[in-house]
């Protein structure tokens, strides 16, 4: 579906799934998720800072540090007004510039999820991450 409007649109969607024979006693398991799909406007305006970092698009407001590393993302107020949950993401980096922590805060549910880089295995594309939810 293409959005040919001049403003962004957030459409509420619901996805349902079920599968028989995998539940308790061979019963059916059903799952339903509700969320929003973003449809950008025909001509979406993207704002950049003097360093060329994206600071705003139709969905997010972005924050950058002095070394041009993404440190925050926050849901735009227009998205919240359309019914999208307000979220704030915060990123932390180590001395080598690697992202070592990501914090996701959801305002409506007052929950947050954090993942932290516990160990990097040099020479191998393998990382040990620790995740927690509050």
Q: How would you characterize the overall build of this protein?
A:
The mean pLDDT is 81. The protein has one helix and ten strands, in the order E-E-E-E-E-E-H-E-E-E-E. The chain has one helix at residues 77-81; strands spanning 9-19, 29-39, 47-48, 54-56, 60-64, 70-75, 87-93, 99-106, 111-120, 127-133. It folds into two domains: 1-42, no CATH class; 45-133, Lipocalin (Beta Barrel), CATH 2.40.128. A hairpin with a 4-residue loop joins strand 8 and strand 9 (111-120). It has a six-stranded antiparallel beta sheet.
Tell me which CATH architecture of the largest domain applies here.
Beta Barrel
Question: Oligomeric form of this entry?
Answer: single chain
**Alpha-carbon Rg, integer:** 19 Å
Low-confidence stretches: none
**pLDDT average, as an integer?**
81
Distance between termini? 36 Å
Strand line-up of the largest beta sheet? 5-6-7-8-9-10
Coarse morphology: flat
How many structural domains does the protein architecture include?
A: 2
Tally the beta strands.
10
Keywords:
single chain; 134 residues; mainly beta; Lipocalin; six-stranded antiparallel beta sheet; two-stranded antiparallel sheet; 10 strands; 52% strand; flat
Task: Summarize the helices and strands and which ones pair or pack.
Elements (H helix, E strand, L loop, with lengths): L8 E11 L9 E11 L7 E2 L5 E3 L3 E5 L5 E6 L1 H5 L5 E7 L5 E8 L4 E10 L6 E7 L1
Antiparallel strand pairs: 1-2, 3-4, 5-6, 6-7, 7-8, 8-9, 9-10
Outline of this structure?
By secondary structure, the chain is mainly beta. It has 1 helix and 10 strands, in the order ββββββαββββ. The mean pLDDT is 81.
